[in-house]
Amino acid sequence: MINRRNKKIGIYLIFVISVFLVSQTGLSIYSAIKGAQLSSLESEKNKLSTEYQDLNSEVISLQSLSRIDALAQQSGLSKPQNVIYLKNSDTLAGR
Amino acid sequence: MISRIKVLFIFFIVGFLALSLRLFYWQIVEGKDLAKKAILQYRSREILNAPRGNIIAADSTWLAATQQGWLLYAQLTDLKKKPADITSLISPLLPDVNQEKMVSLLQSSKLGVNWVPLVHKISNSTKEKIEELNLSGLGFEEENFRLYPEGSSSAQLLGFVGKDSDGSDKGYFGLEGFYNQSLQGKTGFSEGERDARGGVLANGANSEIQAVGGVDLVTSIDKTFQLIAEKKLKEGIEKYGAVSGTVVILDPNDGSVLAMVAYPSYDPANYFNFESESFKNPVVSDSFEPGSIFKPIIMASALDAGVINPLTVCDICNGPVKIDKYSIETWDNKYHPDSTMTDVIVHSDNVGMTFVGKKLGVDKLFQYLQKFGIGKSTGIDLQGEENPGIRDENNWNSVDLATATFGQGIAVTPIQMVRAISVLANGGYLIKPHVVSALKKDDWISNYQEANKVQVISENAANEIKSMMIDAVKNGESKWTQARGFKIAGKTGTAQIPVSGHYDDKKTIASFVGFAPADKPKFVMLVTLREPKTSQWGSETAAPLWFNIASNLFVYLGIQPES
Q1: pLDDT digit string (tens) for B5-51?
Q2: Cα distance between residue B221 and residue B59, in whole Å
Q3: For A50, which residue in chain B has the nearest alpha carbon?
Q4: The dihedral of CA B147, B153, B155, B157: what is its sign?
Q5: Which of these, B37, B48, B60, B135, lies nearest to B91 by C-alpha position?
Q6: Which residue among B221, B278, B336, B379 is least enclosed by CB atoms within 10 Å?
């Protein structure tokens, strides 16, 4: 009677321990997967952030007025030397 | 049988004691050190740098921004290749780097150094290419650096970012210095548990205090104004052989600075290659005796005080006037008897101004100087503003009074001068010059709150002096150089430079101050040239430069000539 009872308890304990071990293993695997996903997302975020920074720096440099002015001069554009202002009556719309 | 059990029991007891002792040693004796070592192994603590705020021009483009970069360093003990080989491998990727210097840095281990910084400001793409070389002993450290897209054009206005005694970024001079606290933000920290490969443990104890980036400064600086002023000033300094020069352009209605340029300048991104003398902004830091550009201030004071009117006749203008042992003469030794006050301004007549000074008296003159902000800091939001001050009210004698009326024996900074002239342009109100019009961070914005304007002179007096200054441009010494058709109010100035208690005859500061369009001014501008060589006179150097800049601004602003 006692032996049968002990056997039942033993089986029950083995079952509980097995469930515990399986769930622990599952949880560990799940944590590892999520950790890896997190790392991958983190590195993707860093990559995107770096790309954003690079593009932003490029925009900043490209918008430099000194640069645009130098490029315009290299392209042969020059500032008007003698600006002639037309009276309203001189224009076609003014007639 | 029993003895065997006893032996086994003793064996277990001894084993248990040994284990307990060892555990005691690990847990109690070495516990703290081991815990520290363990924490270092599985916990990582990272400092999250706060990105420094940007400085933005009025057209929403950048004047200064923070760029992510890297410091390439060498852990000399981990190097596996020879310094020369490492240098030859990485130098094609870093064309600006001195190879000899790099080799000598990599050989620093002979001097007992283990870690050396090799190259600063490396871009992400270059970093990736160097990493692909797989060179043992080389590493990277994140190092944000400041990008100034306009180079040296706004150097003195912006200042630069250097390091403080702790090695942290700190702004010096100009806006970077004045707004350092707002721009620098707050550093953050990230703590977390990592696995053996450095990956994040999802169920680990992770915490993060995010870095708070600095606020952006939205300035009133118009990049086109700034570029025009810089280019023309450089050309002017070369043309007239001047030592240095400044241009400052203000909106006289609200005090916002539209452009501020000084030359010689420096590159704020490479400030360490320049002498510290070039860092200060002469517009706010350097004082000078203003000379004749000061006359409109005194004349406006006398008009407001009611001691003269534009038609008042100067009854001492027929020759030099003697005050104590000094003789006051005109700049060209020509005398204009019975000049009206308008003529006095048009001819820039020192004797006529002495007449005005006598009418005004020391007390009133002193009061008006204070009202115009002379002798007081303007409070402009730039680091390094100096105030030359004025002599105490009780220490003025008749010679001081006379010379002050034509801008001698009194010192001002360019920003004080242009602020005082703004009073004449805007109908009599003293404004506070400022560069930043708003502080911005994400969706939050705090606009500049304009202080209550103080009325210094009446609108009538302001209009009268404005008419005189328009006449001075049309008929004064600089009439040949004016921008024809435009209504401009202005005044030339030539001030001798005081050297060891006397004035240097040959060295002058040539200047021109004015505003346009005179009836509804869009800008007030002061141009100064130090020690011009082609001519010492403001009318032949600073005035043509002023009109040259103004002509460009008229085209840019779409201001049409009136006649």
Answers
A1: 888 899 999 999 999 999 999 889 998 898 888 887 787 777 788 88
A2: 8
A3: B124
A4: negative
A5: B135
A6: B379
> How many angstroms away from the CA of B509 is the closest CA of chain A?
29
- Residue B458: pLDDT band (50, 70, 90) is very high
Chain B CB contacts of A69 below 8 Å = 227, 231
The tokens describing B194, both together, are 């990592």
Question: Residue B293, by phi and psi: left (phi above 0), alpha (psi -120 to 50) or beta?
Answer: alpha
What whole-number distance in Å separates Cα of residue B477 and Cα of residue B512?
11
Report the alpha-carbon distance of residue B457 to residue B454 in Å, rounded. Answer: 9
> Which H/E stretch holds residue B551?
helix B542-557
Q: Nearest-CA distance from A7 to chain B in Å?
A: 30
Chain-chain contact of A64 with B150 (C-beta, under 8 angstroms): yes
Cα–Cα dist B146/B171, whole Å: 10
Cβ partners under 8 Å of residue B334, min gap 6: B347
Extract the runs of DSSP E, i.e. beta strands, from B143-219: 145-147, 160-163, 169-172, 188-193, 207-209, 216-219
pTM attached to this predicted model: 0.83
Q: What is the C-alpha to C-alpha distance for residues B86 and B91, in angstroms, rounded to an integer?
A: 8
> What do you get for the CA distance between the two ends of chain B, in Å?
130
Contact B469, B491 (CB under 8 A): yes
Contact call for B201 and A31, based on CB within 8 A: yes
Q: Using the 8-state DSSP alphabet, how is residue B200 labeled? A: B
Provide the ipTM. Answer: 0.72
Distance CA B130, CA B123 (A): 11
- The whole-angstrom distance between A34's CA and the closest CA on chain B is 6
Closest CA to B291 of B497, B468, B483: B497
Distance CA B533, CA B324 (A): 34
The amino acid sitting at B68 is Q
Contact B489, B295 (CB under 8 A): no
Q: Which of B459, B468, B454, B560 is nearest to B517 (CA)?
A: B560
Question: Which tens digits make up the pLDDT trace of B324-358?
Answer: 888 888 888 888 898 999 999 999 999 999 999 99
Beta-carbon contacts of residue A35 (< 8 Å; ≥ 6 apart):
B195, B199, B200, B201, B202
What b/e sequence results for B200-239 when a residue is b if at least 16 CB atoms lie within 10 Å of its CB, and e otherwise?
Answer: bbbeeebeeeebebbbbbbbbbbbbbbbbbbbbbbebbeb
Q: State the Cα–Cα distance between residues B237 and B545, nearest whole angstrom.
A: 9
